[in-house]
Specification:
The chain is built from 10 helices and 11 strands. The chain folds into 2 domains: 6-117 and 281-299, no CATH class; 143-271, 3-Layer(aba) Sandwich (Rossmann fold), CATH 3.40.50.2000. The protein is of the alpha/beta class. Helix 3 (121-129) packs across helix 8.
């Protein structure tokens, strides 16, 4: 007989009410569908458990939720479940219909989503539910879209994203004469981009657009290729039929993408069906959480 686990759900790892609701639902789902011992912690410190459940990435910042997550990462010895923003059907909001749920991390290759070679049924449900239109791979395109991420964000894996962007843009211009559009992150307004903006002004045929003003779908119109590091916008790009170039295996589009800017004029456009089927098992609704489905899926308790 399998021993009962103690599972701690740390509600203060999140800031926004919809995210609190996710964690509360997650706690309820485990409590109602397994015989494990579950507690919903309002503490700002780690409490010992076999499985810890948190919301979002952990960063070296002095806000309460990041301090709590850092305390959990430093002291927890067991399994970790991370709830994050979704990959399919992304919108600029704190209140999503689906949320990413990974075991031990939230990024590609670092997290275990139990989704290798998944069937297509769940992708069909999510595709219909979110009204996602998968466009054919583009036949032509005008501009190249570079996606900026937040400097210092955990998803950039300690890479100076502004420096990386500049190097890639310079190299891209040596290979392609296509205009370049840099899409700024929707939450970039609080960052000092003076030097990067000066760099852009010095370049011919390079412009900037602000992510909080236009949906990414608009910037992907008539786009030749998207260049990014680990941005979730890579998934939006492949759904829109625009190929991606990314050097990082942490990028969820990496398996079907080109990995060098040298391929900018002939980027890979491989079959997307299996990747989209796999991505469907990275995200779950709050209702599914309340029924324990993502927990049981990740822990291999039963097939979902």
């Amino acid at each position: 007989m399998t021993s009962r686990k103690v599972i701690g759900v740390f509600v203060n790892s999140s800031v926004h009410q919809p995210h609190h609701n996710c964690l509360t639902a997650f706690c309820h789902g485990i409590r109602e569908t397994t015989d494990n011992l579950v507690f919903l912690s309002n503490s700002t410190k780690y409490m010992d458990c076999d499985v810890a459940v948190i919301f979002g990435s952990w960063k070296d910042r002095h806000t309460k939720h990041h301090l709590l997550k850092k305390d959990i990462i430093d002291n927890h010895k067991g399994e970790l479940i991370v709830v994050e923003t979704p990959l399919l059907g992304r919108t600029i909001t704190e209140d999503h219909k689906y949320y990413r749920v990974g075991k031990n991390h939230y990024m590609n290759t670092l997290a275990d989503f139990k989704n290798n070679k998944s069937g297509k049924e769940r992708w069909g449900i999510i595709r219909t539910d979110l009204n996602i239109e998968v466009k054919d791979w583009r036949k032509d395109g005008k501009h190249i879209l570079f996606l900026m991420q937040l400097p210092g964000d955990a998803a950039t894996a300690n890479v100076d994203i502004l420096e990386w962007l500049q190097k890639e843009i310079v190299q891209c211009k040596k290979i392609s004469s296509r205009p370049i559009v840099v899409r700024m992150h929707p939450l970039i307004s609080s960052y000092d981009l003076t030097k990067f903006e000066e760099f852009v002004k010095e370049q011919d045929d390079v412009s900037m657009v602000f992510g909080h003003k236009n949906p990414i779908e608009k910037d992907l119109e008539n786009c030749w290729a998207t260049v990014c590091f680990t941005s979730g916008g890579a998934v939006d790009s492949i759904v829109a039929g625009v190929p991606v170039i990314t050097p990082s295996p942490l990028n969820f589009a990496y398996p079907i993408s080109s990995h060098s800017i040298e391929e900018i004029e002939k980027p890979k456009m491989w079959d997307r069906n299996q990747l989209l089927s796999d991505l469907a098992y990275t995200q779950w609704t709050v209702t599914e959480m309340a029924h324990g489905l993502p927990y049981k899926h990740l822990m291999g308790i039963e097939k979902v």
